[in-house]
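During the reporting period the student researcher (J.K.) took over the structure-prediction task from the postdoctoral fellow and processed the backlog of single-chain submissions. One of the processed entries is reproduced below for the supervisory committee.
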Amino acid sequence: MGLEVLASVPGRPQHRAYEAATEAASNPAGGRRAHVATYEGYCVKDREKVQFEGTVVELKNGRKAAQGICPKCGTKVMRILGKSDA
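J.K. obtained the following structure tokens:
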């Protein structure tokens, strides 16, 4: 899928939301994580809207967001969800 691009830096822990997104992407068949759904978000690296499979995470300010991995380049993609989407 392109997870080789997202190799972590030795000695530096990954962010919890990133770990949740990568685990959900690698285990879509009913793991312990939140429900995986398809969302549309903007990839900053590709400069276009992309469809991605993501999980719902809670940001520091309490808002809900969908987070996943861009299918083209492998970078993290996020979409802030509205109150009705969460």
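The committee noted the following: The CA atoms of residues 59 and 65 lie 7 Å apart.
J.K. will present the remaining backlog at the next meeting.
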